[in-house]
Each structure stands twice: as C-alpha cells, then as structure tokens.
Amino acid sequence: MHYGWVVVWLTFFAILIAAGIRSITGIIMVPMEHEFEWSRSAISLAFAINLTLYGFSGPFIAAGMERIGIRRMMVYAMGLLVLGMIASLFMTQIWQLHIIWGIVIGMGCGVFLTVLSATIANNWFEKRKGFVLGLLMASTAAGQMIFLPFLSYLTETYTWRISMSVFIILAIIMIPIIVIWMKDSPKEKGLAPYGAIEKDAKQLDAKEDQKNPISSAFEVLWIGIRSGPFWLLALSFFICGLSTAGLMGTHFIPASTHHGIPEVHAASLFAFMGVFNIIGTMASGWLSDRYDNRWLLFWYYGLRGLSLLVLPYAFEQKSYAMLIAFAVFYGLDWIATVPPTVRLASDFFGKERGAIIYGWVFAAHQVGSGVAAFLGGYFYETYHSYTMTFISAGILCIIATLFVLSAKKRPASSKEAISA
Known about the structure:
By secondary structure, the chain is mainly alpha-helical.
C-alpha cells in the first residue's frame, strides 16, 4: 500500500477532531447565555471572529507548511487547540471568549480546516485527487456533526465543560500520533506521489524547493485579483460559507430550540445530516474528476438555496418528517462544493498555484461564515426569529449559481499563461 493512504487517514482523523471542536459552538451557545448572561450576538461575535480568522489564515498556513513542514504545523495547531480549550474552562468574561474562541482556537482550526486537505492531495497524489479531496472534506463534515448528539447529551446532563473535555482528551491523544506517523511529502519515504512517475516527482520537488513561500502567497493573490474567475469563485464561496458553517453550523441547533425542538433531538438531526454530508462530499469528489465542475456547482448551490427557503416552514410546522427530509437533502450538498471549487482553482491557475489560490478563495468562504454567524445572532435578537436569515441565505445561494456558470473555461493557451 502506498504510504500516501496512511497520511490520508491520519489527516482524516486529525481534521475530524478539529472540525468537532469547531462544531461545539452550536451546543455551548445557549448554556453560555444562561450561565454568564451574555447576549447571543456577543457570543456569536466570538464565533464570527473564529471563522473569519481561520479563513484568512489559509494562504499563510499553506506558506507555513512549505517552510516548516506539514507535520510541525499540525502538531503546533493541535497544541494550540488544547491550550485554547483548557483556557475556556476557566473563562468568566465575554472578552475572554472572544480571545480564546475567536483568536486562539480560530488559528488552531485554521491549520486543519483550510488548505490542509488540498495540500495533502496535491503533495501525495497525482491520480485520484478528487476522491482523496472528497474523503478529507468528508472528515470536515463528519467532525462538525457526528459528535453533536453525544456532546448535547453531556451538556444537558452535566455541563458544557464536560463536553469540551472530551475534545481536550482526543486532541492530546492525537499529538503523538501525528509526530510518529505523519510525513510531509512522499520523498521522506523514498516514494513518488501516488500515480506519478518518479522522474517527474523529483523535478517537481526541486522546483518547489526554490520558492519563497510567503512572497509566493502574495504573488498568487496578485495574479488572482486581476482575474475574473478568481472573483467569481471567491463570491460564490463567500455565499457557500454564509449558507453552511456560519449559518447552519452556528445557529441550526439554537434555531431548533427556539421552535421548541429539544437540543438533543436537534443535535441528532444535525448528526443525521452529517452522515449524508459524508456521502455527498465523497460523491462530489468522484464527480469532479469526471464532469464539468461549473455545472456541478450550479446544481449544488441551486438545490441548497431551495432547501433553505423551505427550512423556516418546516420549523414553523414542527414537522420532523420535513426536517429529516431537509437533513438528507441539505446534508448531501453541504461540503460537496469544495472538490469542484478546488479543481476549478487548479484548472484556472495551474497545479502549483492551485492550493494557494484555493486558500484565498477559502478566505472569502470564511468571511461569509463570519458574517452569517454574527448576523444570525443579531437578527435573532432584533426580530426574535431566524426566518429572515434562512430565506436571505437561500436567495443568495440561487444568485451564486450565476457566478459559477460565468466562470468560463479558458483555452489551453490562456491557462498556460496564468500558470507561467
């Protein structure tokens, strides 16, 4: 077995833990309101800072991985997450929540939830990249959802601090595993990337070693901002973040409890959604290797928008049948947008710049996430309802379909000019 698959599964479980840490925000929001008497918008602001910060860290994390290595970055980030969660057990002021969850945990999550998947796929695989990327993004989906019923039960039965302690233990266990088995590149094991020719792999390694990673991140950004496809991908991914992690990841469970659905039931729905998220993301990776990625994104955004327009009605009716149907439908679509977006970034800007371009595009995704996380709490306090938030997100998803179809494929000569 090629060692790349060992790296993939190790990365899968590391991302699973980091995504689980990020997802706990939906469970601890209401208990923090009751314990500390903080407003929902103030709590949402901390999570908005978290989402935005780790999004903008993506290109620099990609550069840092080139400079000091993937393994070290993963170890440092996991340690940062442990530090942040331990500190959060003792916080008493809202500004402490903003620093711990907004900055410390935001930076730690950024290493695992931004460009790591794309970097692993590019470094270790020449073939089956779409499948690998879909698998790793599925771990993001799974981590955000499958832990929630158990964590919700612990929170209701004991306290949110017990729920957080579960992740402290998991993260501590993960650190030595990364140190022992994680490798930065195939050449550490004397291998070529999976499916690559040895000679070509050595030439690529030599070329990458000559790059200045920090300046490369800004050079690629400058290339991107002068390109129409970059802005179209960034705008569509802004809407993607707004309609997923920022909105559903932060506010789905609080919105459910607002409509009288017990938190454990809401968390179970969210976990059920996560099962189909894994299926949808892996299927999207497979499809992205075979079909026009622009049309894949068109259907993903369009169907997501329609489902969000129906969600307020399902909440008002308290229809578990409709909510289960929504969980299946929306779950298949949640992170399915990532593999086609990564592929389009590489198609337009070349393999070498694809991961960094995706890092900048992902920054737009997280700005959207941060906007939705904060405005969801703000609109709830203003209107005592989430209806406007869900409907606005649905309309924006439908608008995103126009952005992705407008990203016309370039002729081969133009692609070569961008990659030069």
